[in-house]
Amino acid sequence: MTLAEITPARISEYKSIRRIEGAKPATLSRELEVLRHALNLAVREWEWLDRSPFERVRIERVNNKIERWLTLEEEEKLLNASLPWLREIIIFALNTGMRQDEILSLKWSEIDLPRRAATLLFTKNKEKRTVPLNQTVMALLSAKGRVRSISGYVFTSQAETKIDARNLLRAFYAARTKAKLEDVRFHDLRHTFATRLVQSGVDLYVVKELLGHKTITMTMRYAHHYPESLRHGVEVLEYIWTQNGHTGFKKRI
Q: Which stretches of 57-153 are assigned E, i.e. beta strand?
């Protein structure tokens, strides 16, 4: 089609056809976002159109916030079903909250064992981030550090090269099938890290910094996991009354 032929009606027709073909809502949304971006360029930068037909087309919002975290029992099942090299990566992910590529790209030069920290130079947000390492991770790294790969990567393939993400996921899917945890994704290890911190009462701002979120909005999705943190807010009111010589609600009615 030429640009002039792409009308709101044509876009709506395309949406209907893709639904009939069985396209998932998230897939259709991504396709429409690409088309909208292209048409916006045609209007704003190239001046091929006066206005975008998307001004009159709605793209349905897709709720892709999948919340899944591992219980301690599920973690044990997954670890028992994993190959030794994969088990190390899973333990590392559960105790650092690092993203998949951050783990696979991690080099020994980025780890400061005396300070018990890893400095990530290349992250999803393009910003340097320091990740503290707990005792579990330190023990794992100390064991691995005795025989370091010449490639410099912390986690390597048998050829001592960076592990390919597809090979990691292939092994992970096999382990989760064996453990009968079919709905668990590798990214859920990061969710598990965050959820356990929040459930233990760790401040959301601390969790935000550990996860490397750019805004607190991303981290707020975990807030409901710790309702007891809200209780402190209302109990402050009782504290105010007692500090001023009052004994509480019963004495005031």
A: 111-112, 117-120, 129-132
